[in-house]
Amino acid sequence: MRIAVLDDYQGVAASLADWDSLGADVTFFTEHLGQDDDGVVAALAGYDAIVAMRERTPLSADRLARLPDLQLIISTGRRNASIDLKATAARGITVCHTGYLPSPAAEHTWALIHAATRRLDVELGAIASGGWQTTVGRGLEGARLGVLGLGNLGSRVARVGLAFGMDVIAWSQNLTDERAAEVGVRRVDKEELFATADILTIHLVLSKRSRGLVGAEELALMKPDSILVNTSRGPIVDEEALLDALRGGRLGLAALDVFDIEPLPSDHPLRTAPRAILTPHIGYVTREQYEVFYRDAVEDIAAFAAGQPIRLLELPPRNL
To answer: Would the pTM of this model clear 0.85, i.e. be above it?
Structure first.
């Protein structure tokens, strides 16, 4: 069996699982294969199995149709919107998933919140260049934290906000008063969430309903000194509307870990946008997380080779 392990940017996959136990030909791709379909297909031609790191390299119907040897795809994490599951089913390709730790993404959300409220981007640069105390930070106690999506990750982030003494509110299309009360926060309507939050953090699954949910209208509701944090998925926020709000001074700051196109192009306007703190989609990137991903990937491949595949990845519900 020939196995391709994709997007191993840090070059650590080989050391975090027992790949030798598979007795297979395993190739670790440490560079992104790019956006070009021809280039991706050429790189993956002849492989029987692909281990996809999250959604870094989409496996579309067109790409899958040009990979006739492919029998198995492993997705790190429990869902992957960039794999066309209808196409894999039609072509008889087995798709499995791995476990996932929710804590790293919640922790990174708070890293971004602290970086934004204390302007660590500015202060770290200042002290490295010989400067000293150039900004005035903002405290968290008594501030209002708006949580867009109160699922597993959103709830974790909300509880930390409560521990800091913040006034925590939440909204999503299906959120109930009862669910909000379970977490200890108050459910509000969409308009109040955007209009009153000092810090608004996004924790939604990317779907037809959530794509572009935070657009020009929603950003216009936000206070001019508010902070928008996104560690979920880039397309939930309209990038052009966000850039317009930042350039026009209508939004205090954006702290982003996710983008429409990843890796973010070197000439992308967000890289030079005013009052933007950017990290390269590292919310889930911890050693503990990678150990789960690659350990489970090896288990998935071994089970498939034995004719008993495990952790099958299924199509999402139709309403998504």
So the answer is: yes
Q: Which one-letter amino acid corresponds to residue 294?
A: Y
Joined tokens for residue 75: 């997705």
Structural domains in the chain, CATH included, are 2-101+287-305 (3.40.50.720), 103-278 (3.40.50.720)
141 neighbors 164 (Cβ within 8 angstroms): yes
Strand 25-28 vs strand 72-75: parallel, antiparallel, or unpaired? unpaired
CB 3 within 8 A of CB 26: yes
Distance between CA atoms of 198 and 135, rounded to whole angstroms? 18
Give per-residue pLDDT as tens, 203-246: 999 999 999 999 999 999 999 999 999 999 999 999 999 999 99
**Torsion of the alpha carbons at 87, 294, 203 and 168, rounded to the nearest 10:** 160
3-state secondary structure of 195: helix
Q: Name the token pair of 319.
A: 């309403």
Each residue's pLDDT tens digit, 100-125: 999 999 999 999 999 999 999 999 99
Active site amino acids: 233, 262, 281
